[in-house]
């Protein structure tokens, strides 16, 4: 039996993606919490495993895989069903573009380490940090709404969940935590509702984690 260990933090949106993916694939895993608040990701012990000092990281029978989208791709190779990206090249490219809009364009600008740097090293007041967050979330989600709406069904692409939806749900969770307005994105909100009705998504929610603080 394949042994999977997930190193994650319950509120990390990238970690949330991987929990959803593991659940959708029906893969059992051991969870090793890494507190970002306590900077445990920067400990020598953790950085010996993952030199980047980020979560999530998975160990699959000892093989270490970092970066959430790389992990999703690895899980797709490990268990074929359900697939996270379509098999047809146009559909695959479209879903990857939607997922990367979140993972590369929205999320990095609003990562905890970026927000901490704005506040601590650059001396920005919390109001300015929150404004930064909401600006980049609004810009990214507006683009995602426009990109996804023409081919969306119950999910961002058709009627089955895939990589883009796995990225979307955690991003909307984080947006709500910082009171980012979401009413302008009906396609995204409809997709989120469809996803959260699936047990694999619901069980991955931060509030459902034993390490939730």
Automatic annotation (TrEMBL):
The UniProt family comment states: Belongs to the GST superfamily. Zeta family.
The protein in question is named Maleylacetoacetate isomerase
What the entry lists under InterPro entries is as follows: Glutathione-S-Trfase_C-like, Glutathione-S-Trfase_C_sf, Glutathione_S-Trfase, Glutathione_S-Trfase_N, GST_Zeta, GST_Zeta_C, GST_Zeta_N, Thioredoxin-like_sf
Q: Is Iron tagged as a keyword?
A: no
Entry keywords, A to Z:
Isomerase
Q: Tell me which species this is from.
A: Sphingomonas glaciei
Q: Which residues form the GST C-terminal domain?
A: 88-213
Query: Residues in domain GST N-terminal?
Result: 2-83
């Amino acid at each position: 039996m394949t042994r999977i260990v997930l190193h994650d933090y319950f509120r990390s949106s990238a970690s949330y993606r991987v929990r959803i993916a593991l659940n959708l694939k029906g893969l059992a895993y051991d969870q090793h919490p890494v507190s970002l608040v306590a900077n445990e990701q920067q400990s020598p012990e953790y950085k010996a495993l993952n030199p980047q000092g980020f979560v999530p990281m998975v160990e699959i029978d000892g093989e270490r895989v970092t970066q959430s989208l790389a992990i999703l791709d690895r899980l797709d190779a490990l268990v074929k069903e359900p697939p996270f990206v379509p098999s047809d090249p146009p559909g695959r490219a479209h879903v990857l573009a939607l997922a990367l809009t979140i993972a590369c364009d929205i999320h990095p600008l609003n990562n905890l380490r970026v927000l901490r740097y704005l506040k601590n090293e650059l001396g920005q007041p919390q109001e300015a940090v929150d404004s930064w967050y909401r600006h980049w979330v609004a810009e990214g989600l507006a683009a995602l709404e426009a990109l996804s709406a023409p081919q969306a069904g119950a999910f961002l692409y058709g009627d089955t969940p895939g990589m883009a939806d796995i990225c979307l749900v955690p991003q909307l969770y984080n947006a709500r935590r910082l009171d980012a307005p979401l009413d302008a994105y009906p396609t995204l909100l409809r997709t989120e509702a469809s996803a959260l009705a699936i047990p694999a998504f619901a069980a991955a929610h931060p509030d459902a984690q034993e390490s939730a603080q």
